Amino acid sequence: MNPPRAITQSDIAKQLGIGQKTVSRVLNGDPQVSPKLREQVESAAQAMGYRLNRSARSIKTRRFDTAMFLQVAARSHHRVMPGLLDGIAAGLAESGRSLMIERLVVADGSDVVTPTRGLDDAMADGIVAYADTEPAPAVEAMIDAVGLPVVWINRRRDHDTVCPDDVGAVEAMVDRLAAAGHSRIAWFDRQLGYRPPEELHYSRADRLEGFQAAMARRQLEPLLMVPSYDPGELGIIPWAEAQLRDLKCTAVACYHLGEALDVLYAASRAGIRVPEDLSLIAVHHDSPFAGVRIDVAALPAEELGRRAALMLAQRIAGAPPQAALNVPCSIIPGGTVRPPRAE
After folding, report:
1. pTM of the predicted structure, to 2 decimals
2. How does pLDDT run across 229-259, given as a tens digit for each residue?
3. Hey, is 90 helix, strand or coil?
4. CA-based nearest residue to 177, from 96, 275, 31
5. In order of start, what are the domains of the chain with their CATH numbers?
């Protein structure tokens, strides 16, 4: 038996008594078509079992109803924050688009960049780009050369970018510690003190700014646990242990989970108990277990992705560059913040 013949646009036109070009305009999304005609043609197409040849339409119109997520990774083991892709996919679905994923790994210190197949083919309507460090000029030039609208996530720019509110996140962390009664609060960032600023993600400076602003607002001394030299992976714990003893802080706010784990280990070596003797809070994606559930300012990964996808949809539709957007973080209480012990 021969398979049934596929329904064509000509069949729909004959059924409705209109021209095939009119049917084509409707099914290809021409915005000049009246709502009444659109409903009539789409209803007939659905009833007759018509399936749009998206490949043929894409070749003709250069519209793919797809956006590319491009991860620019400075290290091959770099991971995307959990929930980010879910948010991007949800935001794209609101504009009728699907998601394709590409990964561009750039060797540390290298200016040689090989484009991915996705960038070469450019079979997408726009790009949502994500990087853990400031992309090299060669990388940005490669992405710009594709000629598609680009929205960045987690990159400091004045337009077409969506970022977490890093300053506000740490201010909220300090507020939580201060509300519990702490005044001797330290900020721990194991890279900010000795690495050149251009090698660091902008969020390290922003989170320090949030800490200093919150402490100044409460007229508290900002205690800093920021090494002036690279102690190395083996030396950071003894260094942090000495800092906890010298500063006599009752609480530590941390740049990220890695620093929080360092504090937990250093405190245990010093005989300092968390949370009985020392409260702890960090910026992270969620509230993780490390013997106890750590209090965090949670990065809004899913909302970052959704907002970036919606911003990209506006750019694809022809909107001018969009102002940079900061998305608030939220405090997730855990088991590592308690009032300081009475002396």
Report:
1. 0.80
2. 988 877 999 999 999 999 999 999 999 999 9
3. helix
4. 275
5. 9-52 (1.10.260.40), 66-164+301-326 (3.40.50.2300), 166-299 (3.40.50.2300)
